[in-house]
Design brief:
338 residues; alpha+beta; Immunoglobulin-like; 6-stranded antiparallel sheet; 4-stranded antiparallel sheet; 11 helices
């Protein structure tokens, strides 16, 4: 007995979106494949740890910054979150490729894409890379929810076999087939308008892409200096790198302390910064400020307190000074020291 006709409009919709389903499915499954199979990027002590990439999102994340900051200040929770996140991507991606519980998987795509958009939509050195991935993921996830899967999916195979669960209402909402909506156009128009608003809003917030001046926070490094002070014969200050390419550090080659007359009373050059001791740096997050071969390396999203001894230098604890940091690119950042 044949329970299902495979020429339904929902089948045609699922067939039309077949390439989208396969590509989006691989996009998310490949994240698991890269991090676990091709390389192991879930080991906190190893280079390329995905938790450090997550830390890069922090400075300009939209709406979810408190969540990211909590995780990067709690390494064990961060590691668990990265493992869970990776496994969710694997399941969502695999289920989409197979066309199994397609609508439930598309909801997973919506959630993952929203996380990418809000967390890293501001990143992208040459194009608006992460923003595009996020908004297209949201739109693609919504489209797959509407279409479900057609021929070439397990959902469709189970429906053709007439399995009892495929004739339930919950399967229509979580699997494939015709959505049980009386007024289909109205919710689609409303949801589409909201997705367009989200696209324009985040494009403007992250990049000024709708009106005003375009900006790209991934082009050059920016280091914020705060809490600069002189205490007990030492210079103390906090640095926080908030902009620049996520795959390339800021390389600090000089630290200067200047008096009111503009005279340099203390200078640390590249060689001295490359040999700075661990006791002079207190990192806040999993992405760490650390000495490199020829400079002090400040990765994107890294925040650290720096302490530099001033013994034997003509520095008075009662005077005001200016702190200057010099990047290898020639960019300088200054702050008052009191």
């Amino acid at each position: 007995m044949k329970f299902y006709k495979d020429d339904q409009p929902s089948d045609m919709a699922g067939l039309i979106t077949l390439s989208m389903r396969l590509v989006i499915g691989w996009t998310y499954f490949s994240a698991f494949w890269r991090r676990v199979v091709l390389e192991d990027k879930l080991i906190p002590e190893e280079a390329g740890y995905i938790g450090e990439k997550f830390n890069h999102f922090l400075p300009n994340a939209l709406g979810i910054k408190p969540i990211i900051e909590y995780l990067v200040t709690h390494p064990e929770d961060l590691h668990l979150a990265m493992v869970v996140f990776t496994m969710v991507e694997a399941v969502v991606g695999l289920f989409l490729i197979l066309g199994l519980f397609t609508r439930l998987s598309s909801i997973g795509v919506l959630g993952l894409a929203m996380g990418i958009l809000l967390g890293s939509g501001w990143l992208g050195t040459t194009c608006l890379d992460e923003w595009q991935i996020g908004v297209l993921g949201v739109a693609g996830g919504f489209t797959l929810f509407l279409s479900g899967s057609g021929p070439g999916s397990l959902d469709h195979y189970f429906m053709k076999k007439g399995l009892p669960f495929t004739r339930t209402t919950w399967f229509c909402w979580l699997g494939s087939g015709t959505l049980p909506l009386k007024k289909f156009k109205v919710p689609v128009f409303i949801a589409s308008a909201l997705i367009l608003f989200l696209t324009l809003f985040t494009n403007q917030i992250f990049h000024g892409g709708v009106w005003g001046t375009l900006h790209n926070k991934s082009v050059k490094p920016k280091v914020e200096i705060s809490d600069a002070s002189l205490e007990k014969g030492s210079l103390h200050f906090r640095i926080y790198r908030t902009e620049g390419a996520d795959v390339y550090g800021s390389f600090l080659i000089e630290i200067q302390l200047l008096n009111k007359a503009g005279e340099v009373v203390m200078k640390k050059n590249a060689a001295q910064l490359s040999s700075i001791s661990a006791g002079e740096i207190r990192n806040h997050y999993v992405t760490k400020v650390k000495p490199g071969k020829h400079s002090l390396i400040i990765p994107l999203g890294a925040k650290a307190d720096i302490s530099i001894g001033l013994a034997g230098l003509p520095v008075s604890m009662d005077e005001d000074y200016t702190l200057k940091l010099v990047d290898i690119s020639g960019i300088e950042w200054v702050a008052s020291v009191k």
